[in-house]
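Before relying on records like the one below, remember that each one covers exactly one chain. Contacts with other chains, cofactors or solvent are not represented anywhere in the record.
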Amino acid sequence: MTPTDSRPPAAAATHTASDRTHGGTFDADVAVVGGGPVGTLLAVLLGQQGHRVTIVEKWPEFYAQPRAVTFDHEIARILSSLGIDSENDPAIGVHDDIYYWKNAAGQTLLEVDWASMAASGWRTRYWFSQPDLEKRLRGIAAALPTVQFRQGWEATSLEQSEAGILIRGTARTADGTTAEQQLSARYVVGADGANSFVRKALGLDSDDHGFFFDWLILDMIPKKPMHFSPSAWQLCDPARPTTIVPGGPGRRRWEFMVLPGESPEELSSPESAWRLLEPWNVTPDDAELERSAVYRFQARCAETWRAGRGLIAGDAAHLMPPFAGEGMCAGLRDSVALAWRLDLILNGKAGDALLDSYGEERKVHVRHYIDFSMDLGKIICIADPAEAAERDRRMIAEHAVSNGVPVDTDIASLGPGLWRQGSAHAGELSVQGVVEANGRRGRFDDVVGRGWTVVGRGMTGVDMLTSRQAQRLESLGGRCVSIGAPGTDCDVADVDGTYTKWFDDLDINFVIVRPDFYVAATASDAAALRESLDAMFDGLRAGTFELHPHLATTK
């Protein structure tokens, strides 16, 4: 008997377990264990390319309580590809404020830039309700005929072969009965959270960074307008370290550190919650307590993210404290990084070795945010008055020296993988500006398109690439466009000058952008561009980016 599904299940397979993992018929191209935002986004991206994806979620009902409340410009760019416009969506909030860190006396210790527009064309910070976003992602997935959900389906074992993976599990039906079932797929992705079954079943170890602090999370729904300035800040008071941030439109969040000797259970009671909110003039008369729960903030990252045809993503691969607002963001980046690789592999356009670069690239990137989050946590998670006083003295002095310049958080790059090391801006997120082409004006992604893209100035596409390279790029669904100032003879007009400035700053004329918006390589002349393109094409099979100048193709 099948568990609760969002659509009718596929016909039952008649193959044996051995057949189903040794080149026989598969129930899915990709099985995703975990139906949260990371797993659902991956399913959507693969489903949009026509791949068969089955999401299995052990809980019969999706979790309806808030968790993450903020995402950054890169996630806004990703969501835009699904038709979710973070600038104009009523379910997504914007607060153009600096993220302040203040001591008990109200003195500023640190400022983090959450107020500017990022180079990728979106604001540095947006606010939302995770259950609302997950519901929308599931709605997009449900509209795709090749994506299935199986709720109440708990994976219990994995059996792997050269051809695929067989998952065995227990399905809980709507009437409460259980049945043993199995699901075969060419690949399995574990997006099943911090206690990931898939990570353990694949034998992948997680590196613990030794960061453990318990915090009480209070999610509030105001009954009347509440105005806070700044909208997001940290109160670094050793008497009670506190976080005050938006929770998405119509919501606010407070987080209070559990002090040494306190009982997390007692602190999370409604009575205790309202006492903690009294200094903020929040009472049951003007707000609803949506959730009160104690979470342990941790920092952890897996060294290896792949074992054969099994991979991990999101919290299954990494955990970080929430102080930088990057935990869910990192997981959604995992989804995008996996999706374009699996798409090419499943279509026979790339070798299986391409998946090796997934973890190598992502773990370096995510460790930057883990370290940054821990550094922020070490600032606020201080309950000793003497230690806090020393912190205040040091940071106030440092803030004065910096003239109050906010910390820029947008500096992470990928680890070694399918991008040219030593090439300017390679391994980093590409910029995005306002352009015009074919009678349309808007962000580059919307006007020109997404996917593999070669952008050059001063040359037409015919002059940039060899005919063979143009064909190979087209086979990947890619494009090659020229860009220049409005009024010049180019495919795309650089309306706001973003690309002219970018190219000038880097002293380049060409850039290769990957489907995940990261730069594969830049070049100053067509010969270097062609060389990098050949290396990239070879890398899709070999899984690494290595230059072979003597193999450069000709027209």
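The first strand starts at residue 28 and ends at 33.
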